[in-house]
Backbone:
């Protein structure tokens, strides 16, 4: 056999084990699917303040337990944190003004003072209407907390995977700015929706500069889907069926999860979606479940809840129904063929008015905001690990960029598209790296399928 023939034959043979090992992906490149589930309006201390080993509620030596007490201007004394089993709550206002009042220059003692003195926020806490929303000493429920008695699945995920106890909301404001940061690393107002250079930082967007379904786009700066499209990276953004994202006629929601308001689905408001013609990548929860079942998940998935399962304190069917919804999504990934190459990140968009003791860092004029819960679930997750790196939604973008975009950032200097953002959030020195939460040398861990409704089973 000639040398040329031998080479030709060798090219047809399967690679040797050494070659296969050399070609096998390493580190974060073992992850082909990054999935981000974003719930609503809970602080870290409210959900995990008593979780063992986490940076939770401070220890109070006077009562020999973990709790926090802050001034209560209604009762004219201090009110302290307490355990609650209530499924629906009031929480508090969650905008930039109430954030500033709550943080109070870093003292973290203004959460009750941030409550407007109105019936909605139970200024008369002894009234019959407010009885279910107060603690045993008439504390407002912004001082309440849950644990594994109400949230067994979330606490199990923390036990078995990774709990993030320094995840801060990206903006010291409400839902919409948080979701804008989730997909673009910025929240801004644009005087001209066709001119990215007309955009300036804005964390309000309550009365102006906000997109509603069916209207023309108003967000002119660059979101991450622009870069994903450039590199041919697949993505999906999943919302409640019947949400009518682009104003077209649509059917009623197919299941019990409800529609998704525009404030939690900002992508239809970005001009980039129209420029790249990617409107069809905004899909429904049912389509996510189908893709998970058939092994057709995109490289990047974002999932935001419908109004019935959002865990917003005063809406929907309550905390455990929100947990059931999230568990169903996670189970679908675990039961599907993509599990061994996936990482699921679960967080909440803002603090919902609930107490948290950790002072947020000031990264720029928009944030960080008050701390929220964060979990990472993956076959490569470090088991029972508490990640105390400073994180925000910017870390999600950083991981997407490092895994799929060769480390390219949402940086005006390199985007190839005009963009006026003043800070490249992924490059902030204080921001941690989510890659630290994985052990890629361990064999992929098997799925952990949980009952979406464990409390019903226990009753």
Residues:
């Amino acid at each position: 056999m000639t040398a040329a023939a031998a080479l030709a034959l060798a090219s047809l043979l399967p690679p040797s084990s050494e070659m296969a090992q050399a070609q096998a992906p390493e580190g974060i490149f073992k992850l082909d699917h990054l999935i981000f589930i974003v719930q609503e309006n809970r602080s870290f201390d409210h959900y995990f303040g008593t979780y063992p080993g986490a940076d939770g509620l401070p220890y109070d030596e006077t009562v020999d337990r973990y709790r926090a007490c802050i001034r209560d201007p209604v009762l004219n004394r201090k009110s302290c944190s307490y355990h609650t089993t209530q499924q629906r709550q009031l929480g508090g206002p969650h905008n930039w003004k109430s954030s500033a009042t709550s943080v109070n220059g870093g003292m973290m003692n203004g959460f009750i003072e941030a409550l407007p003195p109105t019936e909605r926020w139970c200024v008369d806490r002894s009234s019959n209407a407010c009885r279910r929303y107060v603690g045993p000493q008439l504390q407002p429920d912004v001082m309440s907390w849950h644990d594994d008695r109400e949230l067994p699945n979330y606490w199990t995920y923390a036990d078995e995977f990774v709990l993030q106890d320094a995840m801060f909301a990206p903006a010291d404001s409400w839902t919409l700015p948080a979701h804008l940061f989730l997909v673009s690393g910025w929240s801004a107002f644009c005087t001209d929706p066709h001119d990215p250079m007309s955009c300036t930082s804005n964390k309000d967007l309550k009365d102006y500069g906000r997109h509603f379904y069916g209207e023309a786009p108003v967000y002119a700066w660059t979101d991450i889907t622009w870069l994903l499209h450039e590199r041919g990276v697949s993505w999906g953004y999943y919302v409640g069926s019947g949400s009518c994202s682009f104003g077209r006629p649509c059917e009623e929601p197919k299941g019990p999860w409800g529609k998704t308001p525009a404030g939690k689905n900002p992508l239809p408001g970005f001009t980039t979606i129209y420029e790249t013609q990617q409107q069809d990548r905004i899909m429904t929860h049912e389509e996510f479940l189908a893709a998970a079942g058939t092994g057709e998940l995109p490289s990047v998935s974002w999932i935001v809840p419908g109004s019935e399962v959002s865990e917003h304190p005063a809406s929907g069917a309550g905390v455990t129904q929100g947990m059931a919804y999230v568990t169903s999504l996670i189970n679908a990934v675990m039961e599907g063929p993509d599990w061994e190459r996936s990482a699921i990140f679960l967080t909440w968009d803002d603090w919902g008015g609930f107490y948290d003791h950790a002072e947020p860092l000031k990264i720029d004029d928009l944030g960080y905001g008050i701390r929220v819960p964060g979990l990472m679930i993956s076959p490569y997750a470090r088991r029972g690990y508490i990640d105390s790196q400073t994180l925000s939604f910017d870390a999600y973008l950083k991981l997407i960029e490092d895994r799929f975009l060769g480390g390219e950032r949402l940086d005006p200097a390199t985007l190839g598209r005009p963009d006026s953002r003043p800070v490249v959030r992924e490059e902030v020195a204080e921001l941690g790296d989510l890659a630290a939460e994985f052990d890629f040398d361990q064999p992929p861990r098997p799925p952990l399928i949980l009952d979406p409704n464990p409390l019903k089973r226990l009753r």
Summary: The chain has two domains: 27-47+148-458, 64-145.
